[in-house]
Amino acid sequence: MSMQWDPLLGFSALFGAVQALDCSPSAIQSALPSNANVNFAYPLQAGSTFEVPEGDTGYPTNPVELPALCAVSVQVESIGDSTYGFGLFLPEDWNGRFLAVGNGGVAGGVNWLDMGPGTRYGFATMSTDTGHNSSMIDGSWAYKQPEKIENWGHLAMHGSVVTAKGITAAYYGKDISFNYYAGCSTGGRQGLKEAERYPEDFDGIIAGAPAWWTSRLQTWTVKTALYNLPTTADYHIPPALFPVIAKEVLKQCDPQDGLIDTIISDPTGCNFRPEELLCGANSTDASCLTSPQISTLYKFYTDSVGGNQTFLFPHVNLGSENLWFIMFGAAPNPLGTEYPRYFLGLGPDWSPYDLNEDVQRLADLDPGDATVKYDLSAFHGKGGKILSYHGMSDALIPTGSLTYFYNQVHRTLKPRGIELDSFFRAFLVPGMGHCSGTFPSTNAPWYFAGPNQAPSLGPAVHGVPGFEDKDHDVLLAMMAWVEEGDAPERIVATKYVDETSHDAVMRQRPLCMYPKQAKYEGSGDVDDASSWECKLLY
Ligand SMILES: *[C@@H]1O[C@H](CO)[C@@H](O)[C@H](O)[C@H]1NC(C)=O
Ligand SMILES: *[C@@H]1O[C@H](CO)[C@@H](O)[C@H](O)[C@H]1NC(C)=O
Ligand SMILES: *[C@@H]1O[C@H](CO)[C@@H](O)[C@H](O)[C@H]1NC(C)=O
């Protein structure tokens, strides 16, 4: 076995030969507390595919081309008669560290696919099934099941982390040096929840597009969809018109950020006039909006407030229109409707048209403690680091929900003498949708090896192909911050010409630490990250 020194990963190959336990069910069982049982444990040779067990609805895709590792599945008893399970990959060439990855939507299942890239860095990598078995958009498992909701809200992640760390240390016969977390969407929420409620679990947490405000996000999803329903209303904007709106928004907002480049970099700074889209007297084509439709557009771009003027939830950004079809179509996104039906217990017959302030008050009771609170002082106190990011063209979770959270944490901690820059940094990603990807006509740099991103480039990818360093790879950036105190000021995002071959780069651009924004310096190649600076533009 060769031994290669890497400044971040250490002697990555060194630990491979010294496993203290076999990769067998009985050996793994010996490392478990009495409330946990091994489902399976078996070795996989380098280059193997892990076959996702039959019936795993949440994440059915097999991770492929894995390094040599021990594949483990464990079931843990939780509150009442509920249980949760987790999967753990223990690579032969261990880097001495632990990584937990997150889930998506309301899915129940071990996210084996996202564990794959983690093992290629050398992490012992874990994912919890959150305590149930379902697809991303099916919340029926939660109906009258407060224990399952509590498992999904926080118990399953925390319990899986603690148990999996125990297995990891016993398996290698060595303490874990650093503990990391990486997740997006629900995974982002799980990471922030860990920081708030279980500050000892991780040293570094990457929380992408966090769905942190469970009690508000889902009701907002229903409420905003209703702005455009029923489809027979004169104010309804058919999804076929969303690209037309996107085009007009680009026309008005792209130049306002200082550079015409198909990327809206400063949506909150754009003064948009929807009336440019108004139909004339004899308009028959599908390229304009009526006056009632323009009123709907105003609602989409306005924060949601309660009847008493209480702020409820931020609006979608200008520049998110290309993704509206998943939110503002013929029915609300199921993630919105399932929440009142099953998490709030209103039943399968509950209609989105029944949304009212009573439903919001019920939601604000926050079943399962699934919403993240703002006091992250304990995580700060133990030296933990959080790196969060959000796509500016996300329509599933508005970008403003991350900046709202960031600013609320700031307002909570600064009066107590804690500067957020010291432990919590947020990066907004111009032109990126939900967790990954960019619209074909936008071509924004969006790839930085964030959670869920690698499979978009290819089944065997990890890190940023061609740019395997902390300036381009958010996980390496987090490791440098935690392990060397090298805090990331900016992260360079990459757009490849062809994302599946990823051999040529189309554009690179820095993502800046909120509230700074990337500013083109007026000279040099706009597609080269070095032509940009991160600045406060106010
Ligand atoms: C998970 O749910 C699917 C679909 O309902 C079912 O077919 C499968 O047997 C379940 N798997 C487990 C492990 O319970
Ligand atoms: C609209 O069409 C009518 C009938 O064809 C025509 O008389 C009128 O001039 C048109 N108006 C405009 C603004 O083009
Ligand atoms: C205002 O409305 C919000 C959302 O429905 C609710 O949480 C809050 O309690 C209300 N405040 C008052 C003073 O009624």
From TrEMBL:
Pfam families recorded: Tannase
Transmembrane keyword on record: no
UniProt EC number: 3.1.1.-
Domain of life of the native organism: Eukaryota
GO molecular function, one term: feruloyl esterase activity
Signal peptide segment: 1-20
Alphabetic keyword roster: Calcium, Disulfide bond, Hydrolase, Metal-binding, Serine esterase, Signal
InterPro entries associated with the record: AB_hydrolase_fold (IPR029058), Tannase/feruloyl_esterase (IPR011118)
PANTHER family, alphabetized: CARBOXYLIC ESTER HYDROLASE, FERULOYL ESTERASE B-RELATED
Assigned protein family: Belongs to the tannase family.
Protein name per UniProt: Carboxylic ester hydrolase
